[in-house]
Amino acid sequence: MQVDKHKVVTIDYTLTDNEGNVLDQSRNGEFAYLHGADNIIPGLETALDGKETGEEVNVAVPPGEAYGEYNDALKQVVSKEMFPSQNDVEPGRQFHAQTPEGNPMIITVTDVSGDDVTIDANHPLAGRTLNFEVKVVDVREPSHEELEHGHVHGPGGHEHD
Ligand code: ZN
């Protein structure tokens, strides 16, 4: 079956940066997504469009089609008191937060100087070209429930409580 809008697509992939470091990987059909539902980054979705089960795709996705360009305005200095557990605040530490629109985001602590904490709300992969080696493992029709929810259920997909 061909990858097309609203098909459930299972892929194995290796994601590397331009220096060849492996940033993420999925094997043995453990990752599935709903095509055309913004489950994965736009550049990868476009590259997979129309591919068949068993096909392999290598694609370099520029930041604009991945997690966006790096935005200096998303870096700011805040007071250490803003953090629930002040002892854990150190460079490299990541915290979950919400955008004003209520979307989840990750902030990374990049510097701590006394009470001043520099945080960076850019996505950790912002500004980076992402190199994917992908194999299409399976393509199937979605269930009605999956279509309604906009994501995949079961193996490789979303587990509801
Ligand atoms: Zn669901």
Give structural attributes.
4-stranded antiparallel beta sheet, binds zinc ion, 5-stranded antiparallel beta sheet, 2 helices, 161 residues, 9 strands, single chain, mainly beta
Number of helices: 2
Strand fraction band? 35-45%
H/E series: EEEHEEEEEEH
- Helix % is under 10%
List the uncertain runs: none
Based on secondary structure, the structural category is mainly beta
Mean pLDDT: 93
What is the end-to-end distance? 31 Å
Ligand list: zinc ion
* Largest sheet data: 5 strands, antiparallel
Spatial shape: elongated
Overall strand count: 9
Radius of gyration: 18 Å
Brief account:
This protein has 161 residues and is mainly beta. It contains 2 helices and 9 strands; from the N terminus they run βββαββββββα.
Give an account of the 3D structure.
With 161 residues, the protein is mainly beta. It has two helices and nine strands; from the N terminus they run βββαββββββα. It has helices at 42-48, 144-149; strands spanning 8-16, 22-26, 32-34, 56-61, 75-79, 94-98, 104-113, 116-120, 130-140. The strands form two sheets. Strands 1, 2, 3, 4 and 9 form a five-stranded antiparallel sheet that branches. Strands 5-8-7-6 form a four-stranded antiparallel sheet, with no helix packed on it. The longest helix has 7 residues, at 42-48. It is elongated. Bound molecules: zinc ion. Zinc ion is lined by residues 149, 151, 153, 158, 160.
